[in-house]
Model the fold of this input.
Amino acid sequence: MSEQNVTSSGEGQDVQLWEPRRVLKRVSGGDAGLTCGFLRCRPEKWFPGFSEHWLPVIHSLGSDARITEIKTVLAKPPIGDLSFVGTISGEQVVLSIDSAGAAALSEEIVPGAAEGSARIVVGYFLRRLLASLALSWSGPQAATVTFEPDMDPSGVAVQGSVKIGFSINTVSFAMWIGLGPTLVDVLDGLWRRQVQSLSKLGSGPAVVRIEVAQLGVPPQMLSEYLTKGTVIDLEVKASDGVTIKLGSKAWMPARLLDVGGVLGCEMIPGALAVPPITEGATQLAVEFGAFEREGARVAELGQAGAILVTDIPVSGVVNLVINQEKVGEARLCVYEGRFAIEVQ
Done:
């Protein structure tokens, strides 16, 4: 950081306050809470024999069938004429298939059949799907299932879904299992416990820091950098990108979010941006805040897509930190597309 990057508040040109409430993506607290468990989990891990139970019926028809993806989503299944109700361990679920899948299945099973036969064929396969899930479940408690074809799926409370991608011959389609809050909770908790059990962070507290930038300040200029009204060009692009640190060590790149009025950080894949260390300079960090989390909970955040929810209000106020100690505050600003700060 050179002397030309520091000005008094009256000399800065085109310096505007950063407006996080306008630019940050908004996420609900409920959705954010599922990003460490349910939305990161791999359901196939708990259904190791699923393919062996389900696919043979397709192969017996001489068709080339395979599962192309299995993922958890917060979207609800498409509900229509090809949707059915089942129960898993007493909680209602919605079983559904898209129209392309219904047409492909119907044509494979009953070639040239009337259009109305699609519901019969889909009903059979979704019933078979549900039974296969029960038979292949390897979780801590046995799963009991029922199929309720006469019930109305539109009245079932769905919090999240498992989307299963299939292909039959050249046709790709998806089957959906819409889950209620209890089943979402089960998958969420199972995955969190698995991640925690594999963690090397331990169970003690860890200090988490949200860093915007780090400056190498010549010792003789430090007092100027901390003087109220000073404007400093951080020389980093103004964006929602930050670095999550554990103590003094950079850990994960992340993206800032607005989670119901408080800051959240979504962990993203990619390399960390490590600023060069100037010999003899004082390292001045610009941070949104620091707080403690249990090591087990921090381990959950090591997954790309996981969201850290803080208790820091969404604002442009940042802390100036030396050796992990707060030495001042500033307002985050934008100057020529880059972040700058105005010392308060």
